[in-house]
Structure formats: C-alpha cells, structure tokens
Write a structure and sequence with these properties.
Blueprint: H1 4-31, H2 41-66, H3 71-94, H4 100-123, H5 133-163, H6 168-189, H7 213-223, H8 226-255, H9 263-295, H10 297-306, H11 309-317, H12 321-349, H13 352-380, H14 389-404, H15 408-411
Helix pairs in contact: 1-5, 1-6, 2-4, 2-7, 2-13, 3-4, 3-6, 4-13, 5-6, 5-9, 5-12, 7-13, 8-9, 8-12, 8-13, 8-14, 9-10, 9-12, 10-12, 10-14, 11-12, 11-14
Length: 417
C-alpha cells in the first residue's frame, strides 16, 4: 500500500514528466515538424544534443547538492525556476526565434529537470520498503514514461486544435505556457513532503564540497558493486539504441511514411508510434517484478537487453510503418524492464549518503550513451530515415553487451540472487 508521502512523490514525478511531454511536443513541432523547417539526421541529432547538454554539464554537480541539501527544497526550487523559464521560452517561440537565445533558455529548462528527477530517484528508497523497491521503481519510472507519452499526445492535440485558427508558432506558444503552469503546480504539490522526507538525513551531510571529483567518487563507490556498475553501462547502451531508433523513426515519419509537404501527418504518425512504445513500457513495468521474482534481477536485466534483438533484425529487413511500430513496442517493453530493475539494483546496493553522487554518475553515463546513439544515427541515416544498417548495428551491440558485459560469471558475482 502506498503511503501518503510516497503518493506525493509519485504525483510530483508524474505531473512533471507529463509536462515534459507537453513541452517536448511543442519544441518538436516548432523545430522539427514546422512546414518551413525540413530536418536532416544531423538537425535531429543536434536537437537531442540541446536537450542533453545541460544534463552533461549539470550532472556531475547534481549529486553534490542532493547529498548535502534538502532534496525537497531543491525539487521545489527547480520546478518553480523551470515554470518561469518556460514563460521566456514561450515568448521567444511566439516571436519565431530559433537561434542561440532560445537554445539557452531551453538548456536552462532541461538542466533544472535533472535536479528534479535525480532528487526524486535518490529519495525514493526512503519512502519505500527495501523488499518493494523493484515494484515501486517500476511504478515510478513507468508511470513517468507513460506520462511523458500522454503529455506529448496532449501537446500535439492542443497544437492541432489551435492550428485551425492560428499559425504554428502561436500554437506552440500556447502549449509551452500551459507547460509552465503545470510545472508551477508540481512545485506546489512538493510542499506535501517535509524538508527531510526524501533526504539527506542530518548525520549524512558534510560541508566538504569537492566539485567534479565527487562524481568520480560515485564511480569509485560503484566499483565495489560491480553488478550495479555493469547494469548502469548496459542501461546507457540500451538508451543509446533507443535514441538512434527514435531519430530514425522521426525521419521516417517526417519524410518517408508521409509526404514531406505534410509535416502534421508526420507528427501524428510519430505520436502514434510513441503511444505504442508507451504501451510496451507499461507492460514491461508490470512484467518486471514477476520476472525478477522468478528469474532473479541479473538474469532479467540480461534478458531485457537481448529481447529486442529479433525485432530489430526484422526491422532492418522490412522498414514498413507497421514493423516500425512493433519495434517501438518491443524496444519500449524490454528497455523498461532493464531500467526499472537496474534502478532498484543500484538503490538497494548504495547507502543514502552516497546515492546522490552515484545517481549523478548514472545520469552522465546514460547521457553519454544517448549522445553516442544520436551521433551514430546522424552518421548513418539519410534524410529519408531509411537504413538497413542502423537496426543491424543496434541488434549487434545489444547482443554483444549482453553476452560479454552481462555474462553470468561476472555480472552476478557480487550478488547471491
């Protein structure tokens, strides 16, 4: 049974991620699906880089704050700051700005988001019994992922409705303003948590701040928990593949499955694919606690990395829209199984006083994987998005990592389960 405080934490996370979906749909519409803007693979990869740059810059320092100051206060501040920042973004979008000024304020929005998600992830074990961590993580991460998909659908729906009576930039302006109000609501809900409810505890706080060195301290802590470190690297590899597939799907929907002269149809098609992927994510989260109970968490993580390989090979051979949607479904399902199980693995192995630093390293590792996937896609994909090579490369990387990085003799060496 969920406690009142755990319900509050989940509400903050889910509302914030639903709003992320609304905001990201507005950005995608403005940058990638506007009639006057035809993106290439490099353009799409650059958009991912804009999203991830603040994570990579802020990430090493996030753990420092989360292990020394009230995580509840940090989450409240970050949500409030993000709400105000989006007002500026909305004004710039209405003016049609696409240059460095808009990029700067978008970077600020995504950078503050890192504080929120890392803070809630680090604090979750303090509100959940240890034996329920896998199920609680499945609920938190899956609810968040589904919320992003729903938010994206809401954003696309509002934009399509407004496009009938106004231009595309004005529609995106309205959607971003709605996102701003929703982030402010998340800040208000955070007041349901006490100052120390999600940590850190007083006895865990030190005044010694050493900057970037503390992220490497998180890595050093992980070295004594080899399965957690290997799981983080596997998650980074999996997320890199998802990024490459997302860019491929974006270009296919924008330029191949629909006429390049009809970007709204491409945006709707991409939205449908994301929705089906969200269904896969939901099934993966429901399946994971059962799979961990019957297979053990190490075997399930390894299987989750291998699981998408057959559908990726099929997609390499047949790149129709139906096969793409099925690929999105299975990649979402098994990706979610890997992520929620590994999150619980890391949370159960790492003490709270180090958890912020460890999750900071986790974030940076995953972001490196995502950027690698984006760069790989940019190097391989033509503007049409059609490529037999990219899905084969993804399948090969997943299989190689599962059979080497996650092989039973090394991956499960630090655990009896």
């Amino acid at each position: 049974m969920l406690t009142q405080k755990l319900r509050a934490l989940l509400s903050i996370r889910w509302l914030g991620q639903l709003t992320d979906g609304v905001f990201q749909s507005a950005l995608a519409s403005f940058v990638l699906f506007s009639p006057e803007r035809a993106p290439s693979a490099i353009d799409a990869a650059a958009a991912f880089a804009v999203v991830l740059l603040p994570y990579s810059i802020v990430g090493p320092y996030v753990g420092i704050f989360l292990d020394r100051f009230s995580r509840q206060r940090i989450v409240t501040f970050a949500n409030t700051f993000r709400a105000l920042d989006l007002i500026v973004v909305a004004i710039l979008i209405k003016a049609g700005a696409t240059g460095l000024l808009l990029t700067f304020f978008v970077l600020l929005a995504f950078g503050s988001n890192r504080l929120i998600l890392a803070g809630l992830s680090a604090g979750l074990p303090l509100l959940s019994p240890r034996e329920s961590l896998v199920a609680t993580n499945a609920l938190a991460v899956t609810g968040g992922t589904i919320s992003v998909v729903i938010g994206g659908g809401i954003g696309i729906g509002i934009k399509n409705l407004l496009d009938h009576s106004s231009n595309s930039d004005f529609s995106s302006f309205v959607v971003v303003l709605l996102a701003s109000a929703s982030y402010l609501l998340a800040a208000v809900i955070t007041q349901q948590l006490g100052k120390k409810d999600i940590g850190p505890h007083e006895h865990e706080v030190t005044s010694d701040i050493r900057g970037l060195a503390e992220m490497f301290e998180g890595f050093s802590i992980l070295r004594s928990h080899g399965d957690s470190l290997r799981g983080i690297i596997a998650t980074a590899i999996q997320r890199g593949g998802v990024t490459a597939l997302t860019l491929m799907g974006l270009l296919l929907e924008r330029n191949t499955f629909h006429s390049p002269d009809n970007p709204d149809a491409g945006l709707r098609g991409f939205g449908y694919a994301l929705a089906i992927a969200g269904v896969g994510v939901g099934i993966g989260s429901i399946l994971s606690p059962w799979a961990v109970a019957h297979l053990g968490r190490h075997k399930w993580i390894r299987f989750s990395l291998i699981g998408p390989v057959p559908i990726l090979i099929l997609f390499a051979v047949n790149q129709g829209q139906i096969i793409f949607i099925l690929t999105a479904f299975f990649v979402g399902l098994f990706g979610q199984g890997l992520k929620v199980t590994n999150d619980a693995l890391v949370q159960s192995k790492i003490q709270d006083e180090y958890r912020g630093r460890v999750f900071a390293f986790y974030d940076v590792a995953v972001n490196a994987g995502i950027m690698s996937g984006a760069l790989m896609a940019a190097a391989i994909l033509p503007i049409s998005g059609q490529s037999h090579v990219l899905p084969f490369v993804m399948a090969a990387i997943y299989l190689f990592a599962a059979l080497t990085l996650l092989r039973k003799t090394t991956f499960a060496a630090d655990s009896t389960k």
